[in-house]
Write a structure and sequence with these properties.
Amidase signature (AS) enzymes, two-stranded antiparallel sheet, globular, Carboxybiuret_hydro_AtzE, Amidase
């Protein structure tokens, strides 16, 4: 599928109708999506109504918006009017339907985008693998025997496969950046709470954010502008770059480190303090807030939860409040320390994941010489950044014909525009870039998505 901005330009000019773009998209999803186990619901009726509205605006000479006629999907925790918001769980499959769209969905609709599908995720966004008991394990389009990452794996997979030009996910500890790295897409975790969270099923309010997946930086900047209401400046002073050292130089693929050093060979190497403690505190805060959120449902029917999710939520619900308060106090001091340490730099370079996508049949990765569960530890490099609330953009190294691998570009608070400009420079130099998967015919059979 073409990039979002290319589709929108064609629709606005009348070269193609939004309805035709949509019907082609629906046909492609029907033909290719099922084996990926990435789509949970296809919203055919709604999408056709939205596309028809765009075509009517074009016909009357009214600008239908920046994203006119562009199809997209959302992780299955965004409110969609008329549908239950399941957050990837069967517990809420029959919940009362949402009365209105999530604010992010409403902003995209106002910009002319057409919502086509809801997308697979780890139950309640608790994991880095998109292993879902109800909908299956989302497959990586570059190698269907491998994970797509999570918890926004469905959102990453449909974009990587070319089924949709962009999608929305959520990122609490790396749930956008991890699947972006493993599927070769761009993925943004914005400055904490900068993009609208209204109508998004929460996981851990201290860290929750939403962010887009795209295959081009131009699309990423445009969608961020629509969602944030900010302008992404195209020009500015030369960015000051630093490389993150210490734990960020460990448990990384040699090609990630080589790329970072080639991008900024003279940039200073900064070591953030207490990375292990920061990650432990992030785990604790996440567990406490997640456990508290689901305490009542766990007490009512714990067996209804995915066992892998249930045990961690119960453990979080049992943590003492003073331990949570201690972790939050540490976080406040840690954030101030990191901001002071990095104050002279606009972009920090780090790996996004420690490795390429692990296999579905053995979802483990090597950390410090030991095999550990991917579902818990693929976020080893993203979680400490989330802890600070800083914006972080996952970008795919240009690796045609090989499994994807990504970097993080980390910015100042509200420094997304700097990240975008720097990423566009790397994209123009051919250092980063999304490549389509090869060998799609090898995808194994799966369960078709449900049309709504």
């Amino acid at each position: 599928m073409k990039a979002a901005l290319e589709i929108a330009a064609a629709v606005r000019s009348g070269k193609v109708s939004a309805t035709q773009v949509l019907e082609d998209c629906l046909a492609d999803i029907a033909a290719r999506a099922a084996p990926l186990l990435a789509v949970t619901r296809v919203l055919e009726e709604r999408a056709r109504e939205e596309a028809a509205r765009i075509d009517a605006l074009v016909a009357e000479g009214t600008d239908p918006g920046t994203l006119a006629g562009v199809p997209y999907g959302v992780k299955d925790l965004f409110d969609v009017a008329g549908l239950p918001t399941t957050a990837g769980s069967t517990i809420y499959a029959d919940a009362p339907p949402a009365t209105e769209d999530a604010q992010a969905v409403a902003r995209l609709r106002d910009a002319g985008a057409v919502l086509v599908a809801t997308l697979n995720m780890d139950e309640f966004a608790y994991g880095f693998a998109t292993i879902n008991a109800a909908h299956g394990t989302t497959r990586n389009p570059h190698d269907p025997s491998r994970l797509a990452g999570g918890s926004s794996g469905g959102s990453a997979a449909v974009v990587a496969a070319g089924l949709l030009p962009f999608s929305l996910g959520s990122d609490t500890n790396g749930s956008v950046r991890v699947p972006a790295s493993l599927t070769g897409t761009y993925g943004l975790k914005p400055t904490h709470a900068d993009l609208p969270l209204e109508g998004v099923f929460p996981f851990a309010k201290s860290f929750d954010d939403i962010g887009p997946f795209t295959t081009t930086m131009a699309d990423m900047a445009c969608i961020w502008e629509v969602l944030s209401g900010h302008a992404a400046a195209q020009e500015g002073p030369r960015q000051r770059i630093a490389r993150l050292g210490g734990r960020f130089r460990e448990n990384a693929d040699p090609e990630q480190l080589a790329a970072i050093d080639a991008i900024a060979p003279d940039a200073p190497l900064i070591e953030l303090p207490d990375i292990a403690r920061a990650r432990s505190a992030a785990f604790l805060i996440t567990a406490c807030e997640g456990g508290a959120l689901h305490r009542e449902a766990l007490a009512k029917d714990a067996l209804a939860f995915d066992p892998a999710t249930r045990d961690r939520l119960i453990a979080g619900a049992l943590l003492p409040p003073d331990l949570y308060e201690e972790a939050q106090a540490f976080r406040a001091g840690y954030r101030a320390q990191v901001l002071a340490l990095t104050a002279d730099f606009d972009v920090l370079l780090a790996p996004a994941t420690p490795c390429v996508a692990p296999p579905v049949d053995d979802p483990r990765i090597e950390i410090d010489g030991k095999l550990v569960p991917a579902r818990a530890d693929l976020g080893i490099h993203t979680q400490p950044i989330t802890f600070t609330g800083l914006p972080s953009l996952a970008v795919p190294l240009y690796r045609p014909g090989r499994l994807p691998l990504g970097l993080q570009l980390i910015g100042r608070p509200n420094g997304e525009a700097d990240l975008f400009r720097f990423a566009m420079q790397l994209e123009q130099r051919g250092i980063i870039g999304s490549t389509p998967p090869a060998g799609a015919e090898t995808i194994v059979a799966g369960t078709p998505p449900v049309a709504v």
